[in-house]
Design a protein that fits this description.
The protein has 174 residues and is of the alpha+beta class. The protein has 6 helices and 7 strands; from the N terminus they run ααβααββαβββαβ. The strands form 2 sheets. The protein has a 5-stranded mixed β-sheet, with helices on both faces. It has a two-stranded antiparallel ribbon with strand order 4-5.
């Protein structure tokens, strides 16, 4: 019976966890966001959408193994800047998302700015002895009254692409 419980727990975890980074995967994050939105009122939670700047060049020039190492390190740096009440997920590829559980808009922006700085300030060390400089773009938005889950995510995505169009390695608020 114990072995069966361990297997069930493992399957349940793999259904909601990204195997590369250990963060929530798309399904796990969406479930967490839906739950948070059930009890949230406008302005009490925020979403930050993050994309690794020029990640395709990292994969093309250094290989997918190095790309995976970069993603793991960026996931670690993002997780290190958020609070236990927040949730971090990897939507796929080089795209991450954060649910920030606070009505304090200044704190939300400060966390996002720290994440961008943390990723950019220190190059990712490679096992080969080299390093790769990385940067991210971040779009952040607050929950507005009447927004559905997909609309909330879309608002953060719009801000993210504004950050990319504006020169990358920055935070844009919606």
């Amino acid at each position: 019976m114990t072995q069966r419980k361990v297997q069930e727990l493992s399957l349940s975890r793999s259904a909601t966890t990204d195997s590369l980074t250990g963060l929530l995967n798309r399904a796990g994050f969406r479930s967490r966001l839906e739950q948070a939105m059930l009890n949230a009122s406008a302005g009490t939670i925020s979403l930050a959408m993050i994309d690794v700047d020029r990640f395709k060049l990292i994969n093309d020039n250094s290989g997918h193994q190095v790309g995976d190492l970069v993603l793991k390190e960026i996931a670690k740096r993002i997780s290190g800047q958020v609070r236990s009440s927040d949730a971090v997920g990897r939507l796929g590829g080089d795209e991450f998302i954060i649910l920030l559980n606070t009505p304090n808009w200044e704190m939300v922006q400060d966390i996002c700015n720290r994440i961008v700085a943390t990723v950019c300030d220190t190059a990712v060390e490679l096992p080969s002895g080299g390093s790769i400089k990385t940067a991210i773009s971040c779009g952040v938005t607050r929950l507005q009254a009447g927004l559905a889950v997909d609309d909330f995510i879309h608002e953060a995505d719009i801000a993210l692409y504004e950050a990319k169009r504006g020169g990358r390695n920055r935070v844009v608020v919606a």
